[in-house]
Amino acid sequence: MLALGIDTSSDAGSVGLVSLGGPGGDDGLLGELNLRSGRTHSRRLLPSIHSLLETAGRKPRDLDLLAVAVGPGSFTGLRIGMATAKGLSLALDRPLLGFSTLETIAKAVASLLPVQPRVPPRPICVLLDAGRGEVYRGLFESAGDDVTPVLPEIAIGPGRAMEGIPDACVICGSGVKLLDGIELSGPGERLILPGSTPFLGATLAYRALAMARTMPAGPFPAMTPNYLRLSDAEMTLKG
């Protein structure tokens, strides 16, 4: 199976191509194209997908499955990524799966953490800069590269986002930069990673392939964007 992962939910735009059980034993990551593109996803996404497929020697019709990050994240970015993914899914008649941006970041980070005997896996707190002085927060327990949500995802102020975060937690994502000047309580040592968002294209593709192999035959779950809060325009209309 060949899967394409698409993420435009933040400035860390990414598309990844992953194969499992392909001809000639070409399993694993075939390629990933990453670019911190700010507000230019609309101009770069389709050319990036074309370039990735061409470089890997594949055609769009070779795809078996598509995956996309559904947020939370940039309203405009989410719409661009999801509209593109849905368009490809319809045009190619291929299934499309959507995954939480925060959970996918947690999985990407968990896969990089060292596994130590008799040392429990660390919880992972993902913070994304949500604008308006807030962060999108997700808290997850990790077991190897698998993660389980502990708290509901939420848009919240950075100070409140740290309330109840367990000791020995890994804190990561673009929202980390908003923690400057905020005292992190608790005696346990926390690992704070630099405040940038990892590229997720390949991780999304891997997640889709793993889900496709375990789900029964039939339609995949409906995919909807997870905005977590109103857009700036909607907030203005509400006064």
Structure report:
- With 239 residues, the chain is of the alpha/beta class.
- It folds into two domains: 2-101 and 198-238, 2-Layer Sandwich (Nucleotidyltransferase, domain 5), CATH 3.30.420; 102-192, 2-Layer Sandwich (Nucleotidyltransferase, domain 5), CATH 3.30.420.40.
- It is 28% helix and 28% strand.
- The chain contains six helices and ten strands.
- The protein has helices spanning 41-55, 75-92, 101-110, 158-161, 201-214, 232-238, and strands at residues 2-7, 12-19, 28-36, 65-69, 96-99, 123-131, 134-143, 146-156, 170-172, 191-192.
- A five-stranded mixed beta sheet has the order 3-2-1-4-5, sandwiched between helices. Strands 8-7-6-9-10 form a five-stranded mixed beta sheet.
- Helix 2 links the parallel strand 4 (65-69) and strand 5 (96-99).
- Helix 1 (41-55) packs across helix 2 (75-92).
- The protein is globular and about 50 Å long.
- The N and C termini lie far apart (49 Å).
Low-confidence stretches: none
Strand order of the largest sheet: 3-2-1-4-5
What is the total number of structural domains? 2
CATH topology of the largest domain: Nucleotidyltransferase, domain 5
Specify the CATH class of the largest domain. Alpha Beta
Give me the CATH superfamily of the largest domain: ATPase, nucleotide binding domain
Number of helices: 6
Number of strands: 10
Write down the Rg. Answer: 18 Å
Could you tell me how far the N terminus lies from the C terminus, measured between alpha carbons in angstroms?
A: 49 Å
**General form:** globular
H/E element sequence: EEEHEHEHEEEHEEHH
Assign the CATH architecture of the largest domain: 2-Layer Sandwich
> How would you state the average pLDDT, rounded?
87
Structural class: alpha/beta
Largest sheet: 5 strands, mixed
